[in-house]
Amino acid sequence: MMDIPNKLNLPSYKEQSAEVKERLDFIKRQPVVLEIDNLVKEFPTEEGVRRILDQVSFKVHRREFLSIIGPSGCGKSTLIRMLACLEDITDGLILLDTYPVGEPGADRGMVFQKYTLFPWLTVKKNVMFGLEVANKSKFDAEREALQWLDIVGLEPYADLFPAQLSGGMQQRVAIARALANKPKVLLMDEPFGALDAQTRAKMQAYLLQIREKIDITIIFITHDLDEAVYLSDRVLVLEANPGRVQEIVEVPVERPRSPEQFLSPEFLTTKIHLEELIHPSAEESKDDFKVVKMVATEEV
Amino acid sequence: MSNKEEKWFRFGKGLSQKRVRGLTIASFILPLLIWSAISYLPVWKPEVQIVEAGDTIYFEEGDRVDRETFQLENENLTTEGDLPMLGKRVNPVYFPAPHEVAGALYSAFVTEPRREGDPWFHESVAHSVRVVFWGFIISSIIGVPLGIMCGVFSFFSKLIEPFVEFFRYFPAPVFGALAVAILGINDAPKVAIIFIGTFFQQVLVIANTTRTVDFSLVEAAQTLGAKPGCLLFRVVIPAVLPKLYMDMRILLGWAWTYLIVAEVVGTSTGISWFINQQAKYRMFDNVYAAILVLGFIGLGTDMILGAIGRELFAWEEGKRSFFSRMFNKNKPVAVEA
What is the pLDDT of residues A147-187, one digit of tens each? Predict the structure, then answer.
């Protein structure tokens, strides 16, 4: 894989087509939904305090799709959990629509890697959960829940229980459930990580479709570089020990996205660049076996 | 099933429905067979019951004597030219045959108590059930909420559990005398013994079960806007309910085991009174019948609770409960992959 740049004459990942440039400029002109300012996370350990995240700062604009990638242990999951206020902040600020966030809330909907549908509620009641918590009338909640289930294509399954659905379907319901609260930003923590490759590809397509239909800002954690490039407007690369923002890469792949683009030059060049950022040693190494091994571990 | 011979013993593998049913029946039939064999076949029968007393002056008809004594006495009688005794080999009186116990299961209920004012058997049974019921209910009313709070909040866990952990090592019966002194000699001290025996275990068991709730469900609810009260009542409690229900079934079994101790505290009542009374009369078939009744009530309650549980928590296996099928017109569609 590391040999590809030598064989193919790939463009730089910084070259952007008119569509890409225009779209990214448009996003940059949008209001900032989420501003992360010098975020620090420390854990006490036996050897003393360990810094997981160090001075992480970035901004997310409205309607943007931002992926966060990084080697395992770089704290990307901790970061997104901090955005949801499921982890305490050691230092720094998280501003949502310019207001600092303090506790978990429906304005930052989250989809987890684990299946988190409430197993005692039907699919419809799961989606109604947030709406009922927000004191909507049962009638409105039910109507809206069915609309959201329609958007993720699961309306016919409204009265089934989660245990009756496949993993992919459960995650689609989880997305509908989070979206039903009309969150300002949707946080997705490796949402397709537990799914098989085929289902994952389908889910990516669904997510792109949903994003076309509604106005939503998404922060997406993944360790799958293809997934990151395929879905995102920008990809934030975290380096490990301690987690710092290494680079925010603008994805030069045009929208609407389709699976054929996986082999387009701009897709490959972006992916190779991300690969180099995450595994800098892989390029230097002459040991092919090592490269293969590292790529293999990344895919797992 | 394939035409291949299915194996009976396979590591970690289940058996067919038919075999499971067969084995369940066999697990009751086998002890019954052993019991019948000992009762009806001449395998043990260490005693002789005298049918005709002959010329002996020591024994009467119907007496049970050792086989050795019987032979010795008969030898004595024959050497002196007297008429020997006739007898049949029997099991000891404390080992009645299945048919005798089966008969007693019926006759115990319809036989009038020997002394006027004593309770009938069914009244004794009802008394026992009442004591267990109240002990268990009172324990649960306090223990379940407390256990859940300990499972959810470290504050309650650290404040309450250490002492409860210590207290549960006191065997409930040691409080018998105290309970009588404080609560009198009626049912109150008995209920108290059941309570003490159940409550402390209950708090710990329920707390531990509550801690097994998948915390990511709570986190998911938080990101859907749920606040603490809502998290407790709409996430933690529904999530823990199936396992909690299972715990309660097991705890109810424990409460039953404290019954016999509780019933001899103060004035003896209920099934244990009946058992002691019948043992005094040497009516051992009634004793066995009473013990069996205890078992039937325990097993029966558990089976009924189990069936209710399967209905209540049908969602665990992705099934719809009978009632939701009855009242919900929307038929579920087939599941696609």
Answer: 999 999 999 999 999 999 999 999 999 999 999 999 999 99
**B241 contact residues in A (CB cutoff 8 A):** 120
Q: Residue B256 has what DSSP assignment?
A: H
Q: Please choose, from the candidates A127, A120, A160, A176, the residue with its C-alpha nearest in 3D space to the C-alpha of residue B333.
A: A160
The answer to whether the beta carbons of residues B119 and B87 sit under 8 Å apart is no
- Collect all residues of chain A within an 8 Å Cβ-Cβ radius of residue B225: 105-106, 130, 133-134, 181
For range A195-212, the mean pLDDT: 93
Fold of A30-107+183-259: Rossmann fold (3.40.50)
A246 membership: H or E segment, kind and range: strand A244-250
pLDDT beyond 60 at B336: no
Closest CA to B287 of B276, B300, B299, B298: B276
First-to-final CA distance of chain B: 26
From A47, A135, A128, A96, select the one nearest A219 (Cα to Cα): A96
pLDDT at A293: 45
Q: Do A157 and B217 touch (CB under 8 A)?
A: no
What ranges do the domains of chain A cover? Answer: 30-107+183-259
Among the partner residues B217, B241, B333, nearest to A156 by beta-carbon distance:
B333
Q: Are A216 and A186 in contact (CB under 8 A)?
A: yes
| DSSP-based three-state secondary structure for A131 | helix
Q: Which residue of A has its CA nearest to B317?
A: A163
Mutate to test the interface with A, among B213, B216, B223, B329 (most CBs of A within 10 A): B223
| Chain segment B300-327, per-residue pLDDT in tens | 999 999 999 999 998 887 777 776 666 6
DSSP 8-state symbol, B264: T
* Residue where the block lists tokens 């329609």: A150
Between chain A and chain B, how many beta carbons pairs sit less than 8 Å apart? 96
CB interface of B with A, residues 180-219, below 8 Å: 214, 216-217, 219
Query: Which residue of A86, A106, A162 is in closest CB contact with B224?
Result: A106
A237, β-bridge pairs: A69, A247
A-chain residue closest to B328, CA distance: A159
Longest distance between any two alpha carbons in chain B, whole Å? 102
Q: Where are the beta strands (DSSP E) in A132-202?
A: 185-189
Encoded amino acid at B130, one letter:
R
Query: With pLDDT > 90 as the criterion, what percentage of chain B qualifies?
Result: 64
Domains located in chain B, CATH noted: 1-41 (no CATH), 47-90 (no CATH), 109-316 (1.10.3720.10)
Which residues 6+ apart lie within 8 Å of A295 measured at CB? A1, A275, A282
